[in-house]
Amino acid sequence: MDLDQVAAITVGFAGADLANVVNEAALVDTRRKGSAVTMSDFTRAIERIVAGIEKKNRILGPQERRLVATHELGHALTALALPGADKVHKVSIVPHGIGALGYTLQRPSEDRHLLRRAELLDKLVVLLGGRAAEMLVFDEPSTGAADDLAKATDLARDMVLRYGMDGGLGPVAYGEQPSAFLEPSAHPRSVLGSYGASEQTARQIDSAVQALLKDALERATELLRARRAALDRCVHVLMAKET
């Protein structure tokens, strides 16, 4: 066991969460009739908690498998290309949970409580890496990026509304919405005038959010275009090995 590695992929877990991981890892070991809990058991346990239970009976056709592999590697390769991004721990196209057809598990290098604007911009790029890969390879988007788009939109809105990170609007916070990145989010994403601001300012806010997301998608596309050969090669391997 490498407990440092377990700690690295459970950043932010509370004591009860860690207890669940240990119990789940023991169950995984029991199911495979193992004699000791291994790092692989812990990884599977964390996957079950983060992504849901593996759905072996959910069969994807070849075209869907290629699409999911392309999407997940879009996340992975953009994360690998950005020096400050969290390390990529695992990529899988095995369906998990209710709706996840694949996932990319990243491992933070340390506990973080403060993030700079450049680091948040990189997070937007990784979140939109899946959509960028789909557009680059298939020339059209799919519904697979729905959760990514929601998370990216929440993060971009927090950058503009809470952190005063838009040059045009200046160092002003609008509303009392909780952070989508550091805390659970409950604020609306696109209700004009819901920011405690004038209609003109609300439109400016929406424009600033759209600009952040558009720039992030363009950066992700350029990173992947420069690594297109690696993307195609990795898609082929991921479809064969699944994880």
Plain-language structure description:
The chain has 243 residues and is mainly α. Helix content is 56%, strand content 5%. The chain contains 9 helices and 2 strands. The chain has a two-stranded antiparallel ribbon with strand order 1-2. Helix 5 crosses helix 8 and helix 7 crosses helix 8. The radius of gyration is 19 Å and the shape is globular. The two termini are 21 Å apart.
**Order of H and E elements:** HHHHEEHHHHH
The number of distinct β-strands equals 2
The gyration radius over C-alpha positions equals: 19 Å
Shape: globular
Strand order of the largest sheet: 1-2
Q: β content, as a range? A: under 5%
What percentage of residues falls in helices of 4 or more residues? 55-70%
**Biggest sheet architecture:** 2 strands, antiparallel
Number of helices: 9
Report mean pLDDT, rounded to a whole number: 85
Task: Please report the distance between the alpha carbons of the first and last residues.
Answer: 21 Å
